[in-house]
UniProtKB/TrEMBL annotation:
<protein>
    <recommendedName>
        <fullName>histidine kinase</fullName>
    </recommendedName>
</protein>
<feature type="domain" description="Histidine kinase">
    <location>
        <begin position="1"/>
        <end position="149"/>
    </location>
</feature>
């Protein structure tokens, strides 16, 4: 249904700030003239929680996580950017496969299911998900939704 993406995002940040590491700040910024979007609220929330939880888990203390929503007339971009461990070049192709974990996760726990769920939920909402990453520098995941496709 229709909902206000800014209020929705601010609520998620408030919840996730509680599980972040010491001095790990989640900074939310938004652009757009309107705030109303038509998407499945629960599916989108689950996707964003997965991405921000990863950003928290795969980056250190005293770092910033940038969370942005950019709403244009017919499209919404959702970005989650961290300055964490990044993902090795060779692992990028497998990121969305179930149970896949990159080779630099060390003793950081996980099952490798979060991103597979994100990909499937984004697909259910007719969107796409992309990843830009550099090992030891950081990672940005972007969700893209276009509203003028019927
Ligand atoms: P979980 O099922 O609990 O989410 P997970 O975090 O290991 O476990 P995914 O969220 O599916 O699984 O992520 C898959 C892999 O992609 C991770 O194991 C990690 O190697 C890599 N990854 C995902 N997000 C990031 C990130 N923000 N920074 C660095 N690596 C990441
Ligand atoms: Mg995860």
């Amino acid at each position: 249904g229709w909902f206000n993406v800014i209020a929705f995002a601010e609520e998620i940040v408030e919840e996730l700030q509680l599980i972040s590491k010491q001095n790990q700040l989640i900074v939310y910024e938004h652009t757009g003239t309107s705030a109303q979007v038509f998407l499945d609220h629960n599916l989108l929330k689950n996707c964003i929680i997965n991405l921000i939880s990863n950003a928290i888990k795969y980056s250190g203390e005293n770092t910033m996580i940038q969370f942005n929503t950019k709403l244009k007339e017919n499209e919404l971009l959702v970005e989650v950017k961290d300055n964490g461990i990044g993902i090795p070049e060779l692992d990028k192709v497998n990121l969305f496969e179930p149970f896949f974990r990159a080779h630099n996760t060390g003793d950081i726990p996980g099952t490798g299911l979060g991103l597979n769920i994100v990909k499937r939920y984004v697909g259910l909402m007719s969107g796409t998900v992309t990843c830009q990453t550099e090992q030891n520098k950081g990672t940005t995941f972007t969700l893209h939704f276009n509203f003028n496709q019927q």
